[in-house]
Fold:
Amino acid sequence: PARAEAVASAIRELDDDAALPRYLDQAMDVFGVDSQELGNGLLHLQPGQHMLDGLPGLAKGEEGFTATLSRSRALARDDVQRLSWEHPLLREMMGRIIDGTMGNTALSLLKHPAIPAGRLMVELVFRTHCPAPKRLHVNRFLPPTAVRVLLDESGAVLTDKVSFTGLSKNLQKVKKAMARDLIRSRHDQLRGLLTQGESEAERELPSIIEAAQTRMRSELDTELARLEALARLNPAVREEELDAMRRERSALDTAIDGARLRLDAVRVIVTVDQESR
Structure:
């Protein structure tokens, strides 16, 4: 009963996740999906004029579908799809954003009384990448892990001093034309900071790999020891099973050891006067 209640509580928490409607609204805008409010918590989603191809349930030239964020409304009507983090449309959008280049670069302005105008900062986010065979399910032990690096124009590392959230809430958008001019004028400096940022991030990788290998060895060594003990008592446990687990452990160890960091996002930040608009 306690476990069932915990599962039910987790489901209710997901149903009430305020981040989902915000993410959905932003994602539909990025991917060119039009939505129309139908009332009573219902939405009609349809392909926009400039929608990107290949989104589940939204082929161009077709009418789209009716959806809701409410579990009870979706259960009450067969013609209404429930939008959740597991819905094919949301999963496809998230997959494209994570694996593609969409939205992975930005330039923002920062107004701060303690920082003179014209200063440059670069925020880099790297993600672990482990090219292992799917059969190993390496994500059990090494899920995609983000490594953030924040540098100022002198190369000073500010990652631990300024949090991602604390920085983001003080940033302002910049027009595309101005962004292009700023990037062009600081091109060489940015190249140097990117190179330094990669080196800073690489310092974090060994501890990430070590932690993943420790998790893997702990789980598989325990299971292997259990099977070996069982094999001594039960001849039905074949040596081939033990060898297969040993090979899996060795393959996982090698795969995790080969994990690398891949640059996932870059944000260039320029400080401006408090009076600037």
